[in-house]
Amino acid sequence: MTNPAITAQALRKSYGDKVVLDGIDLTIPEGTVFALLGPNGAGKTTVVKILSTLITADGGEARVGGHDLAAQAQSVRAAIGVTGQFSAVDGLITGEENMLLMADLNHLSKAEGQRVAAELLERFDLVEAAKKPASTYSGGMKRRLDIAMTLVGGPRIIFLDEPTTGLDPRSRHNMWRIIRELVTGGTTVFLTTQYLEEADELADRIAVLNGGRIVAEGSADELKRLVPGGHVRLRFTDPAAHRTAATALPDAARDDEALTLQIPNDGTQRELRAVLDHLDTAGIEADELTVHTPDLDDVFFALTGPDTSVPAQTEQPKETVR
Ligand SMILES: Nc1ncnc2c1ncn2[C@@H]1O[C@H](COP(=O)(O)OP(=O)(O)OP(=O)(O)O)[C@@H](O)[C@H]1O
Ligand SMILES: [Mg+2]
Predict the structure, then answer these.
(1) Along the chain (322 residues), what's the average pLDDT of each consecutive run of 10 residues?
(2) Which of 30, 62, 122, 247 lies 20 to 30 angstroms, CA to CA, from 157?
(3) What domain range is 22 assigned to?
């Protein structure tokens, strides 16, 4: 078995009397994507900053790329690339100059620096903009440049703090493709995100940070199994039909204003048919039927909500059946 790319035990960090990290343990195998999720202020950026040596922990220990974080900070720095939550792009110089500056900082030769910069500008769709000052870039272009800069030194481990925040769907999918390519090449990716879909798409393992601790960890599927949340939602336009259906389906949670019924359902053909049979027997037809399977949003709300004992339900139906 190869050594993990990142391990941490009992990491702690406080600001004044505010405890931000209250004992964080992590093990991230090489060549995998790890996603750290958590609400605003949970401490995600703090974890990234500690593991990338930008700040020190108050307690605990960690190894990154085989090096002890406290004793071998320089070696850790040489092994990693970091894209912070807030841009490191210098607006006064061009995109290309930003890239060449990074190449310089990474001690690449001039020729090598130019080759790598050109390749990354191409990969991040920034060739046209390369000679323009970065201050003229859109938010998404700056974000792409930021991440391209992180890759200049060819780091084996990269930290991406909210890599796709502010990107449009096309740029986001492009970023996901690039992240997957990096991982195929053996790079380890530690990312934080607000987008559960992103963690679902990319991450081998996901950890949810809340209240200073990791409150759940696993693959997307494992996490989804932690919460109930599968249901069928029926919508009516006729209040009388809504009433009749509510009587025919006693398990349903009913909303008299929206004229909807929500019935716990695992989304299998058998359970769906049972609902439809009940409606048929009662001689009613719903105007809309949607099936909701539990997703990471359910997990997130269940684990990080104000009342974490009650799984919340999201509004977005996953799949429209008719
Ligand atoms: N330098 C600092 N001084 C004091 N408090 C800080 C400092 N940096 C972070 N904090 C506090 O630590 C907590 C965690 O912040 P952090 O930036 O790690 O959260 P986050 O999970 O990255 O949030 P977001 O999703 O908003 O980016 C917050 O309450 C924040 O106010
Ligand atoms: Mg943050």
Answers:
(1) 88 96 97 94 95 96 96 94 85 95 93 96 94 92 90 94 87 89 93 89 94 93 81 94 92 93 86 91 92 81 65 40 42
(2) 122
(3) 4-89+152-225+301-314
DSSP letter assigned to residue 136: G
Instruction: Note whether residue 204 is domain-resident.
Output: yes
Q: How far is the CA of 65 from the centre of ligand 2 (A)?
A: 23
Nearest CA owner, ligand 1 atom 1: 15
108 and 160 in a common domain: no
Phi first, then psi, for residue 47 (nearest 5°) are -60, -45
Q: What letter represents residue 10's amino acid?
A: A
Q: pTM for this one? A: 0.81
Residue 321: inside a domain, yes or no? no
Nearest-atom index, ligand 1, CA of 42: 21
CB 321 within 8 A of CB 270: no
Helix (H) or strand (E) holding 275: helix 269-282
